[in-house]
Amino acid sequence: MDGIGEAIFPYHLPDELVVKIFSLLPPENLVQAKCVGHSWYYHINHLIKDPSFIAQHLKNSSSTKYIVIRQEQALSLLTMLNNDRGNGEIRYETEDFSSRFVSRERYARDYYLRYHCNGIFCMHHELLRVFTLFNPSIKELRKLPPPSITDCWHPGIVGFGYDQRTNDYKIINIALDRFLSSRAEVYRMSSDSWMEIELPVETPCAAEARFTAYCQGVFYCESSSETTNMLVSFDMSEEVFRTILFPQDRLTAETSFECVNVWNESLTLFLSNKDRPLSIEMWVLNTLDSTWYRHLTFERQFINVRPFKFHTDDELVMMSSIGGNSDGEEPLISYACYNINSQRFRPLINVEGAIEYWDFSFTKSLVPVEQ
Amino acid sequence: MSSSSTTTTTTRLLMLKASDGVTFEVEEAVATKLGAINNMVEEEGSEDLICLPNVNGKFLGMVLEWCKKHANNNTNSDKGNDEVNKWWDKEFVMDLDQNTLYHLLMAADYLSGTELVDLLTEKVASMIRGKKVEEIRETFKIKSDFLPGQEEEIRKKNSWAFE
C-alpha cells in the first residue's frame, strides 16, 4: 500500500463512492473538473448524461437553496451563507449567470422568469409571446412552440413542475384571452406541445412569487374570492385543478393572506388577522385529507415585514418592502430571517441593485432540456 | 445485572478482530451501527468473535470511535444531540490527512457504515467543491495527462463554466 498519497482520490476508491462524491458537487464545478485529467474527463462526461446520476445529483443539491434575483443588467442566484461567527449577521453571495442566457438567446433581456423546478427556469417573453426553458447550470436552452391559446392577452399564472409518473416536465399556463376570460393550457416536454385543458375553477389573473408554491408535484396559487379564502391547485401528473379552502375560521376577509410556502415538503400557509396584524400564524396542509393544522404563531416586528420563503427548514426569510409606486419607482426591499425553532430574528439586510426577487427554492441541477 | 442501569436490556459485548490481529471489545449496540456487523450478528447469532480481514486495527479503531460517539448520543435523541453530533463529526474529519481519509472511507464502506460513509464522502467532496482545476490537481497530487492543446480545447468548449 505504498505510493498512497499519489493521486489516491478519487480513482483508488470503488466506483460507487466516486459517483457519490461527484454527485455532491455543483454542476459548474463538475464541468470544470473535466480538465483535471483524462480519467476525470471521461468519467464526468459519462456521468452528467446518465439519468440515474442526474437524479442522485438533484436529490443532493436540493439541500442548497438559492433565491433568484434580477438586477439592472443581471440575473443572479443568491445564497444565504452559513454564519460561522454566530453573531446573527446575515451574509450572502451572488453569482450572475445572465451571460449564459444572453449568449444563447438574442432577446434575453426581455424575458421574465415565470417559474422554476429542479434547476430549470421557465422564462416568458411578453412581446414575442413565447416560452423558453433554460437550465443555467449546464447552459441548456429549449425554445418552446407557440402556446395553443393564440389570442392570449396575458399569461397570468404560470406554474412549472415535474410529473413523476411519466418522468415529464410540464408548464401550466392560466391566461386571460382577449375577451378577458381565463383559459388554461398545459405544455408537456415529452411531446414538446401545448394543449388547452378545461379550467373548472375561478382563478386570479396574475400572481407574484409569494402567492404561488410548488410542492410534491402540485402547483398551488392563492385564489381567494370576495367571499371565501382559498387556494387553487394543479396536479402535474393528473393534470387536474382543485380548490383547497383555507383553515376553518380563516375563510373570511378578517384574515389576511401573507404567503404560501413549502416547509418540510408540506404546503404551508402564513396568515394574519386584521385585528392583530403583527401576529402571524403558520398553517401546514395534510394532503391526505386536505386538513390544516396550526404549527405556530409568532409576532413580527413591523407590519411591512412579510414572510417570504424558507431557505432552510428552520429559517424563514422575511421580506420588507418600503416605498415604490405606480410611476415605476422600485421599492426598497430588504430581508430579515426568522428561526421558527429558536424564535429569533436576524436583522434586515439590503441586496444591492436587486429589483425583482423570486423564491428561495431554486436548486442547481444537471437536468437536460435540449432535445 | 446493574440495578442503577436505566435500561433493562443486558449489553452484549462483541469481540472484533482486525486484519493485523488487534482486537476490540465493543457493545453490540455500538458495533451494529455498522451494517455489515449487524448482518453478521443477525445471521450467526451466538458468535461473539468477528474477524474483519479487510480492515487493520488503526482504522477499525477509528471507525469504532465514531460508532461509539453516535451510539451514545443517539440514546436520548433530541435537537440538542443533533447539534452535538454535527459538531463532533466536524472535529472528526477536520484534520484527517488524505491517506487516513482514504483508508477510513474504505473501511467504513466495507463495514457498511452508511452515515460514516456519508460524512467522509462529503469531506472528499468539500476538497473539490469550488476549487479551480489547478487546486484540485494540487490537493490530490494529480499530474495532467492531457496531450498538448487538449485541455485548452475542453476549456474552450466549456468556457461558460469557468467564468
TrEMBL record, chain A:
The superkingdom of the source organism is Eukaryota
Pfam families in the cross-refs: F-box-like, FBA_1
Domain F-box associated beta-propeller type intervals: 111-301
Which residues are in the F-box domain? 12-45
InterPro entries this protein is in? Answer: F-box-assoc_dom_typ1, F-box-assoc_interact_dom, F-box-like_dom_sf, F-box_dom, Kelch-typ_b-propeller, SCF_F-box_component
Q: Where are the transmembrane segments?
A: none
What is the protein's name according to its record?
Answer: F-box domain containing protein
Q: Which organism is it from?
A: Trema orientale
UniProtKB/TrEMBL annotation, chain B:
Keyword tRNA-binding part of the UniProt annotation: no
Show the InterPro entries listed in the entry.
SKP1 (IPR016897), SKP1-like (IPR001232), SKP1-like_dim_sf (IPR036296), SKP1/BTB/POZ_sf (IPR011333), Skp1_comp_dimer (IPR016072), Skp1_comp_POZ (IPR016073)
Keywords, in A-Z order: Kinase, Transferase, Ubl conjugation pathway
Annotated SKP1 component POZ domain residues: 14-72
Query: Which Pfam families does the entry link to?
Result: Skp1, Skp1_POZ
Q: Which GO terms describe its biological process?
A: jasmonic acid mediated signaling pathway; protein ubiquitination; ubiquitin-dependent protein catabolic process
Q: What does this protein do?
A: Involved in ubiquitination and subsequent proteasomal degradation of target proteins. Together with CUL1, RBX1 and a F-box protein, it forms a SCF E3 ubiquitin ligase complex. The functional specificity of this complex depends on the type of F-box protein. In the SCF complex, it serves as an adapter that links the F-box protein to CUL1.
Q: How does it assemble?
A: Part of a SCF (SKP1-cullin-F-box) protein ligase complex.
State the family named in the UniProt similarity comment for this chain: Belongs to the SKP1 family.
Which Gene Ontology terms cover its molecular function? kinase activity
User: PANTHER family attached here?
Assistant: SKP1 (PTHR11165)
Tell me the ranges covered by the SKP1 component dimerisation domain, including all copies: 115-161
Q: What is the lineage of its organism?
A: Eukaryota, Viridiplantae, Streptophyta, Embryophyta, Tracheophyta
| Protein name as catalogued | SKP1-like protein
Named in its record, the pathway it takes part in is:
Protein modification; protein ubiquitination
Alphabetized Gene3D superfamilies for the sequence = Potassium Channel Kv1.1, Chain A
Q: Give the originating organism.
A: Trema orientale
